[in-house]
Design a protein that fits this description.
CATH superfamily: Glycosidases
CATH topology: TIM Barrel
Number of strands: 13
Structural class: alpha/beta
Bound molecules: beta-D-glucopyranose
CATH architecture: Alpha-Beta Barrel
CATH class: Alpha Beta
Shape: globular
Helix content: 25-40%
Number of domains: 1
Length: 421
Amino acid sequence: MDHTEPAGAGDTLQDFGPVPAGWVWGTATAAHQIEGGNVGNDWWDWEHTPGSGTRESSGDACDSWHRWFEDLELVKAIGLDAYRFSLEWSRIEPAEGEFSIAALEHYRAILLAAHELGLRASVTLHHFTTPRWMAAQGGWSNPLVVERFQRFADIAAQHLGDQIDMAATLNEPNVVAHAGYIGGQFPPGRPHDWEGFRQASRHLLLGHLAAREALRAGPGDFPVGLTLALPDTVLHADGDLTSPGERVTDLRPDGPRGELGWLTAGQYLDAARDDDYIGVQTYFTEHVGPDGAELPLPSGERVTQMGWPFTPEALGASVRVAAEVARVPVIVTENGVAAAEDAERIEYYSRSLRSLRAAMDDGVDVRGFFAWSLLDNFEWALGFEPTFGLVEVDPVSFARSSKPSAAWLGGLARASRGAHV
Ligand code: BGC
């Protein structure tokens, strides 16, 4: 089965067509990538660990800790209707059991201002960073993390819940576990530690369930889910990239991707059946051989600044898989491209959104789309080099300037408004 849309390169999407009532057009960020000065978490330590492979320090990032209002105004000016951002756990709980009312009030101010501007606010509780005190106890590999995370979720819900419009417990728990314990590019940087990977994957899943309960029990009534990194995966059983291959849709432990497929995708999609939505974050199509390892790209293949294949149609394919397995509404909580040339971003979104439209036309229940990212920001191990933003940020003055892709996406959003299915 091949759901991939024809390329349509070069031809810019002008009309997304009618969207269902309640649809959101938004853009996303994450605390550590934009706030700056997040010195209390595991990433800050990792950035300053010689040999970690991280290019540079997040430093002041985009100084959004101070410039958050300007960021909200940008979202509004672009013409989008929602802003996804994350809470920095280490600011809210800088020491174990010690909570900062001032940090909670900071995030509350963002929520209130978003509403004053007429924006909907989507809050992520954990976007890759874990407080240093928790990391020192083993982070996500320690079972204690589950109740620590639940307590944090509970405090966040009590203080902020009445202003939240949509929440994700964890951003890409599959990346946290895989990059931390298999790839080793993320803290704690333990490549090939399968036992650590299994433990972290288990505690991330339990952490999601515990935090979901805390969010649902608190004030406010909003959809709760998690977001997953969900590449479109094509398996070539013969190990030959040029063979047609088969899209992987069975993510059970006995499926073609085995334990890895289950722990990095299947277990979360299964749990999402009791969530209110599944957040899909797709950037590319990957091709894997019979052993599950990624097949090298042919030389000359078009790639993004991340070195990922330029394959925007991956989005339509993976929302179909997510919806089929999780059986709950899909929200595209991230999609975008790291590109130096902004025209490439418009091409990427034109094609990814066309593939999304095709999935929706085939009956997939999609409720919204968040572009990654509002700002050019700190791209984890790769530092500030890859630029995903709709808005450029001057590294010295922090001045923001919207790119043409921002105006284009805003135009698309405006055109689709009022044209409900
Ligand atoms: C993450 C973002 C990241 C983006 C591009 C996602 O994995 O949620 O934090 O910047 O992809 O790598």
